[in-house]
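Batch manifest, entry 17 of 40.
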Amino acid sequence: MSCLLIVLAALITGTSGVEADSLLALAELQESEAMYMAADSLYLLACSEYTLNGDRDMADLCRNSSYRMNRLVAEYPFDREEADSIFSLRCPWLSAAERNAYFESGRVDCMEFDGSVRYFESCITNVLYRDLDLMHEYGRRHSSGDIFYDALEDIIFRLPGSGSPHNAWQPEINPLSFIVDGSMTIPREELPESGILYLWIPVPIQSSGQADPRILSVAPAEYVVYPATMDRELGTIYMEIPLDSLEGDLTCSVSTIHTHFERRCIVDPAMIGSYDTEDIEYRKYTGQNPNIEITPEITSLAADIVGSEENPYLQAGMLYNYIVENIPYSFVPHVSIAARGIPESAYCHEYGYGDCGMQSMYFCALCRSLGIPARACGGFQLVPGTEGPHFWAEFMIPGYGWIPVDVTVAETADWSWRLSDSEIQVFEDYFFGNLDPYRMVVQKDVSVPLSPAPIEPVAFATAIQFPAAVCVESMVDVSFITAAYWRFAVTPVQR
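Output type: structure tokens
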């Protein structure tokens, strides 16, 4: 019997005097060997022992280590047979040998832990995103439309003089207003009997292209501790919910309204001034944060992309085109990446793919390495029929301010099996310097700290698109619970 099993058997039978410190050491050993689920069990046992000994600090450390183990693996639910079954259902025209070739070549996202290979929850969808021939065949067989292209075609292909004017002095046009209702109902049995549930619920902010954000209603209003931070870099409404007095299910809701403009930024590269490199904002947005890391490799790549070009606006355009052409969209295991302490820009550079947040952060890292201020803006895209969490980016040009880019929505045109090359090019060109009005900005940049600061780490603090949650009395990670039950609905407001 292994050392681990001996310890566990002794604890279960109550015949051992094994101390909490020994359990913690064994848990850390199992974690170092990628035995994450075994480590999780040991961290929980150590937590219980420390609690019995009255050592709350060490109990909390072990509880958060248990959370981390679950965050590492939660996004990898499938074994090989289950992943292949999904692949077969999505692409029934592929033979077993053809599907096997994808697995054997490493093109199906997986991670090895606890002695077995497990596959990422979106691994088969990612195969389609990265293999455009496969994506196009899927589209032809399902006669699927191009939802972003179809919804935005009238905006993107609108000619000057037809509708709102396109003037350099009027970059914000065609305002749209939206009521956004977010809510969740958590069954009482999924929450601890006592303690406090701390919640940070996302709300819209005042930002480039976004105006007049307001709270229409919030419930339970009596649990709101601070007013909504709609005039700051990150919009949240903060609640503290006493669970001791909670008798039934917990229902929380926030209704907001905001207006977002289409942005058409007309820039004359010859009229660009010089950056004030001592300006606080310049230094902030050319520096690093936990997820926009500027490595020597990223700096070298950016220099190779722009070559001898020195104009920052033209440089940013070259970086944008590089990502659209070379960094395919893919879902990524954000929670696992955060638990491992890997910066998002570094992950994107290493693997050569990423989702909207990762692509935007990578664009920012490339820009910042050249001294171009850039930030990754987070919130929601509200294109009818596909509303959901989203990230895009902005870079700053002297005399013109913040210029939007959205490499991800631009790239969706490449997924189409029916669009011409010229249609794809116009669509992709639009999202450099322009932005559709179907947006809700929640944060001006990634990794903006929550306020007030959480008393312990939340699951994924980089992007606040679901309620961030902390409850020190819970042995289950409440971040997963709030994300699972959060729903939001969008209602356009007629003007």
